[in-house]
Amino acid sequence: MLMNTIKPYKDRSDSKKEQVADMFDGIAGRYDALNRILSLGIDVGWRKKLVRTAALEKPAQILDVATGTADLALELAKTTGAKVIGVDISKGMLEIGRAKVGKERLNDQIELLYGDSESLPFESDRFDVVTASFGVRNFQNLEVGLSEMARVLKPGGLLMVLEFSQPQSSPFKELYRFYSSAILPRLGKALSGDGSAYAYLPESVNAFPYGAEFNRILDLCGLQSASDLSLTFGIASLYTARK
Prior knowledge:
seven-stranded mixed beta sheet; Rossmann fold; single chain; alpha/beta; 8 helices
């Protein structure tokens, strides 16, 4: 079992799960704006790539794990027409997400639930597609969370994970590492007031398995045909696997 010991707040002794929930509760109101600024808007295109791939499945039911403020859930619902359920451990993020869903008048199509991604409150073999965007890196127990995602996926269904990875080609590798370690935490602190949250981002990315190693973990969690697509010089990767 892969335990992720990188936590947002090094001076606290509580679990990573509790710290992640507190961190996102604290920055929830500024999260969307910060994402657009700090990623230069590139994250929007990454999510659209995931949504286009999901739409090919013609799904009736989609689960979006670690749904946050529901950006991905909204795009999935609009593009696929499926019933989308989003789950997140941060009540603050869900509050923002529900307001966005209501504004789009999609309450009948999107349901956002408070819940632990490592203990999903659904029966097995329920969803046609299960997604997560920039959330599995925050799991306390990676294999437990991925195994839960696999459990609720229908046989033959598609699991999709969008997550940060690490560029491998120079000079982009060096430029990205400088930005993520030296600039992003300072800029994030100035904009959000929580320097720990944006220091945690590069630390958690550096510690997270990516590429072939993450595909191997997907295989260990009961999934098949795991593959990855590198995005924007390797800043992020889109992983897909079948049950």
